[in-house]
Amino acid sequence: MGRLFDGPWVLILVFIAVAVVMVLVVVNAVNRSRRSDLAAFGLSGHGQRPGLGGSAVPLEAYVQGLGHRSAATIFGVVGIFVLGIVFGPLALVQASKAEALGVQATAGKVLGWICVVVSILWLIFIFAALSSR
């Protein structure tokens, strides 16, 4: 019977802890960005708010777009650490929804594509390693 911390368990726990801290940092940064965006455009009254390309979008749609932007960024960061082949496309979908509502989601798009590409490279590497045996 070995000890609990023999083998790769320590590295796995450290990796999970770092991933959780990274997600919390990104969520905090996204929420801070959302608050500054809402303060810049104000929440009082109804009407139109500036969107992408100078077009005007309703305030409710803009706020919903901010939520999609946050989700895209979070999915992208989580996808870097676990299941990038799943979270990458989710980040891309959320980023496209945000941009359809007039909110830029460049970070979500970039992270989503990074997740997809890295996951595909990992799958190619794993299949090549398995086929060489």
Describe the structure.
The protein has 133 residues and is mainly α. The chain has one domain (9-131). Helices cover 74% and strands 5% of the residues. It is built from four helices and two strands, in the order αββααα. Helix 1 packs antiparallel against helix 2 and helix 3 runs antiparallel to helix 4 (106-131). The two termini are 31 Å apart.
Summarize the structure.
By secondary structure, this protein is mostly helical. 74% of the residues lie in helices and 5% in strands. The chain has a two-stranded antiparallel ribbon with strand order 1-2.
> In total, how many domains does the architecture comprise?
1
What string, H for helix and E for strand, traces the elements in order? HEEHHH
Radius of gyration: 19 Å
Question: Major sheet: order of its strands?
Answer: 1-2
- The number of helical segments is 4
Give the overall shape.
Answer: flat
Low-pLDDT residue spans = none
Number of strands: 2
Specify the structural class. mainly alpha
State the separation between the terminal residues, measured CA to CA. Answer: 31 Å
Report strand %.
under 5%
Q: How much helical structure, as a percent, in the residues? A: over 70%
Major sheet summary line: 2 strands, antiparallel
Give the overall average pLDDT.
77
